[in-house]
Amino acid sequence: MLRPLERFGGLVLAGIEWVGGLTGLALRLLRVGFKRPIGIDDIAAQMVQQGVRSLPISTFLSLFIGMILAWQFGWALRDFGATMALGYASSLALVRELVPTLIAITVGAKMAAGMAAELGSMKVTEQIDAVAALGADPIKKLVWPRVVGAAASQPLLVVWGNIIAVFGGMMIAEWVYGVPAGYFYQTYIDELVPMDYVSSLVKALIFGVLVGLIGCFQGFSTKFGTEAVGIATTETVVATSICIIIADFYLTMVFF
Amino acid sequence: MEHDAQPPRQDRTEVGTPVPADDLAPARPRTPIIAFVDVSKSFGDNTIYAGMNLEVHPGETLTIIGGSGLGKSVCLKMLIGLLPVDSGRITVLGTDIGTADDEVLREVRRRVAYVFQGGALFDSMTVLENIGYGLREHTKMGDEEIRARAKACLEMVGLEEKDLDTMPASLSGGMRKRVALARSIAPQPEVILYDEPTTGLDPRNITRIGDMIKKLQRELQVTSVVVTHDMPTARKVSDRIAMLYRHRFPFVGTVQEMWQSEDPAVRDFIHGTLRRPPAAHGSHAKEHHGP
């Protein structure tokens, strides 16, 4: 009886420790990040690495999300003879929820895993210590550009994803349900209010910060040995996905 | 934090500026440049140091020896604030490391270079960018000046200008160590910390690195702390040797004093490493590595 309780207690304590560590990193980042120099070059490099290189997968993902959702809604609406409302039905789900969340879970988890692997390798080869030993602050040099890069990249990818998802929906509307693509587009846009776009971008921004923080924290927390890098990377994907879903829940509560 | 008055430092504007012979006399009884006072450090239940004391004097090369996993590298990492101490006090160049804020630590790290065991070169940067990293952090030098300094440092460690634009991944183990050495001397430090500088190298490179440590000592007048368990290197480069044993340094003395020591721990360590005592300081013709 005691053993499962002990195990549960251990998990809770480990979770609290993890959240504490992540919060500590965030606070330290706030303290050093805004000090000059801001590190524009490093941030730009990270945006290219994380954002531009994620464009193909974001495009692919968004196109299929748009197509799948339009197909599903169209199927349900057809029973009521309401396929012409397909644009209205799809827009809110895509813009408010599916595009930002799914891009964060897939592309964001990929970014975070990449950061964890890179920083984890640097940790085990003492490169992070070397940064500090050479007089630089590893938080400022390594964490700041990655977090800012991820936070800036996610909203841009979501904007792009929203555009592509509309195209996906338009294709299915036209080819499968006979709804003119232009009409689908018009009804899609009509349904949205500015707050929908704002919530989509704010979600993406916060997911981006989470992605950067978790990726860097996991990298910095990597134990020694190459196996540890693999473990840290895997854990990062899980932690990022869970944190994004939880954050999504609270953000949805705030916005709606 | 504390800033004790330090003797004025000779202004070295160029790497490789010869130092007057009078200034090279090692281990003179001066104010220690580095002092560990009653330092304790543990990782969980694993005690590394308990009430440890050690002093390093300006201009000398002190080698820390001891078995693997005893915490020799921990000593160096505590010295530049990469690891905190549990209790006690570490003073480096007049600064109490335990109470130093980020800016003070940054200044200490400009003056104290660390050569990591595996080199710890930044994989994503060229040799030039690696060597220039500390210069960009601490100086306002332009690209041309950094390149010139990097070239000079590279030549000091026996590499060529053409190596500047190569990536660390394409270098051999010995070359990586030498680039790491070049990176550490580029900001013209006053103290160099070597963490197992010869580990994993072939005998030719071990000799070369040992020679290089002596050369840097001679030409740059730096104070050096070398962590190693390679006794030939220790004998070659050291002015004094400190032996880590049971969380402290029970023996600190010259190489000759070490071999003459009656301390059982010292004798055990020597006989476990070398089969017979050396004929003279600096000679290692009759040395053999132990099992």
Please tell me about this protein's structure.
The complex is a heterodimer of chains A (256) and B (291). Chain A has helices at 2-33, 40-50, 55-78, 86-124, 127-133, 138-175, 181-191, 194-220, 226-255. Chain A has 256 residues and is mostly helical. Chain A has one domain (56-255). In chain B, 34% of the residues lie in helices and 21% in strands. Chain B has a domain at 32-122 and 191-273: Rossmann fold (3-Layer(aba) Sandwich), CATH 3.40.50.300. Mean pLDDT of chain B is 82; it is low at 1-28 and 274-291. In chain B, helix 3 (127-138) packs parallel to helix 5 and helix 4 (143-156) crosses helix 5 (173-185). The longest helix of chain B is centred in the C-terminal third of the chain and has 18 residues, at 203-220. Classes of the chains: A mainly alpha (256), B alpha/beta (291).
In short:
Chain A has 256 residues and is an all-alpha fold.
